[in-house]
Give the backbone structure.
Amino acid sequence: MIERKGARCGLITTPGFRDLLEMRRRNRRRPYGFEKAFEPLIPREHRLEVEERSGPDGTAVPVDLDSVASEAGRLWSAGVEVIVVSFLHATTSPENERSAVCEINRLWPDRPVFSAGEICDEPLAFERTATAVASAYVTPLMTQYLEDLSARLKDEGCSARLSVVTSDGGLVEVEEEPTAIRTALSGPAAGVWGAQRLCAELGQDSFIACDMGGTSFDACLVSGGTPALTRDRELDFGLPLAIPVIDIATLGAGGGSIARLDTSGRLEVGPEGAGAHPGPACYGKQKLQATVLDADLILGHVGNELRLADRTQKLDKQAAYQAVEERVGRGLGLTAEEAATAIVETAEEKMAECIRLLALEKRVPLDELVLVAYGGAGPLHAAGIARDLGIAEVIVPYRAGVFSAWGGLLMDRRRVQTDRLEVPLDENGLKKLRNMAESHASGAEICSKAVTRIIHEVEVSYNGQGSGIVLICDLADMSEEQMRHRFEERYGQFGTGLPDHPLFLRHLQTTLIAETDQPVDGLLPKGWQGGNGVATGSREIWFEGSRLETPVYNRDALEVDKVLVGPAIVEEPGSTTVVPQGHAASIDSNGSLHILDAHAIAEKMA
């Protein structure tokens, strides 16, 4: 979707709203400077209008089905592969939108047509339409991919039921034909739920999950044991995602992020990246761009080759030196090692600031959290990020490079159902809310597994507000007074409440959960007991202006509960962990590596 390589889509909409996708909210990607015009996923010639109109109160001018047929025919003739129908106020008056979709399906039964209101129940027209278009844009590609994968698994004799991870942290079987857009952020979501399961085993219900790969850094702050969901997320500028997704903050900061000096001579790292091809300078395919991985190689954080899951990637240290010296060191008057230190510290401070803002928004003290680091580059920088934040403990899961994939295996089966209410908080409103909740909870199974837990989340706001506060509620026993008290208590954390102002029930989200019995240590080799803990070698790493000879350990050979005193390097296929000076690390029986700073070590020994 980001590369604009999806299906050719067409849009049929209400008169006057043809340019909605292009107008957006009239915001800019950057506040200053020139930039090219925004290009929506559907060009203007494929966005057409038909006669219809629905009001927010349910009144409607019936849709002109002859016009629908005519305009749909024009779109198919123009080479469009998918059509989206999005009418104004379709969440409260869906009849026109449904009629238009049914008419197109009747005339062209073998072609994909989507109702925006069926994909997304957001009442705001731009967000709903943009989300539906994004889903339609990737649906043909995703459908073909899943069909090919299912066929290959069948040919290999695999009879297991194929499921896909969704962005809200659930699993959906392919036979259920999951909405494509629900999988947009499935990778980061799987990592967060893997971290949740891991921390639950360790008795830790508040943590930060950090996934750093080659191009991006994803962070999620979890407080109270359950990752929060949001409906306010952008896939890219002008591409909102108005469906439930795990509340994850993303930065353009990864191992391949490019370091450079801006026009004022200030060092910047990211968001642009070198990608896999040509990749960092140390890959030997370019010497013009310095990246975070080049800096890590110069500092000795990674060796002269990377141990990947399926191969070994040899690294060119000389190319890394040349790129860092020319692109950063020369302009700042620094040696290659000093410039590499500046690159790494800048990247780590950017990631730390991202987490700091999350903690401020959620009003969670950072010193109460642990940092769970995974991804190919996460363990390299986890201790540095934690140091900047004042976090005492870092946890690096076993096989951190593929932890997000493993998190998908650990996830409970989840099905999320949502509906809009928009009713006052009174006796009648609560009755409607409970009836809706009972309807949501009527499913007995998810992916052939029995439902074991149900969570109801209600969005409540003062009358007239644009957005509300989400409360997790036991609806069977909650009274009007109790819900108001809960709302005003939460609202008081962010602003001044209005005790006499009427409240509205805006939205209900029900999560059905079928808990999995997959063990947390499922990635460990069968019968794993740890090793002898002997270092496999050593190399020099740059630390505070000088090089220190540092032992290198094979993670699979570490002895359970044996303490490694930093500096130390721990290597495994797919990732490398840095244990800095002033820190110590040990591995537990689940294979997780715990890194503690000096203060935490002193407290533990006291």
In short: Residues 125-155 form the longest helix (31 residues). The chain has a mean pLDDT of 87.
